[in-house]
Amino acid sequence: MRGYRHCQPARPAGPAAGGSRREGQEQVVAGGSGSGSASRRRLPVARVLGLGAVAVTAVVLLSGCSVDDAFYFGWPQGGITDQSKRMYDLWIGSVVAALVVGVFVWGLIFWCIIRYRKRGEDLPPQTRYNMPIEILYSVLPFLIISVLFYYTAIVQTDVDKIRPNPDVTVHVVASKWNWEFEYPDQKDAAGQPIRTIGAADYIPVLVVPTHKRIRFVEDSQDVIHSFWVPELLFKRDVFPGGVQNKFEVTIEKEGAYVGRCAELCGTYHSMMNFELRAVPDAEYQQFVSLKKQGMSTPDALVAAGEKDGLATTTRPFDTSRTASNYDR
User: Which of 35, 44, 53, 248 reaches 20 to 30 Å from 61, CA-CA?
Assistant: First the structure.
C-alpha cells in the first residue's frame, strides 16, 4: 500500500496554473463590475442634466416668441387703457413670484436627486417627520397666496370702480346681431340722444375721446351678449331683463380697434362686430356737434377730420343664406 501511494502520479502544474489564471480573470471581472456599477450610479445624474438641457432648449425653440414677447409671459400686448397697464403689472408680479417659487423647488428637487442618489444597498435613515420643514411648507404657501390675493383684490377693485361724474357716458344696447351706441348726455335738436346703430351693410363705429374717463352702460334686448374690445384687455357681459352692467376706462392711445361679441348668442354671433374709434378730445367734440346737427356717423367723422368714416378694422357680413356664401 505504501508503494502504491508513492507510485501515484504527481498532480500536474497545469491545472494549478489554470486556476490562478481563472482567479485573475475573476479579479478582472470583479474589478470591471465595480467600475460599471460606479458608472451606472453616475448615469442618472448625467441623464437628468441632459434632459434638463434638452427641455430648456425645446421650450426656447418651440415657443416661437421674440425677446419682447418672452418678457410679457403670455400677457396680450397692445393694452390702450390705464386699467390694462395695472392688470399687466399684476400679471408680471404673479409670474415672477411663480418663477421664484418654481426655481427654488426645482433646485431642491435636483439637489435631492444628486445629493441623495443611491450609493449602495443599505437603506438610508428613515425619518418619521421634521417639524420645522412641515411648518415651513404649510405656512409659506399660505403667505404667498395671501400676498397674491391682496394685490389681485386691489387691482380688481380699482378696475371695476365706478367714480362719479364721468367725462363721457355711452349707452351700449346689444341685440341679435347688432350694436347700438347712444350718448345720453348729448341730445340733438329734437331732444333725443345722438346715437349710432349698425345695419346689414354698415358696421357701427363707436367714437370716444382719448385721455377722458368713459363710462359704458350696457343693456341687451334679447339674449346675453358680451362687449369686448381686445385692446382694452377687458370685456363685460351684456344682460337682458333690465340688468345693467357698467364699467369705466380711460383710453390713452388713438386709433381704430375692432370690437366683438364674446358670448355665443346665436346664428350670426361671429358677425356681430363693431369698431371703437379713439380720437383726440377736440375732434370728438366736433364729431358730437355735427351729430347734433343731424349728420350721419360716417359723414360726421370725415367732417371732423377722420380719413375714413366707415369701419376699417372689420367689414359687414353678407347674411343671406345662399349656396354661393357657403362655398366661400
Answer: 44
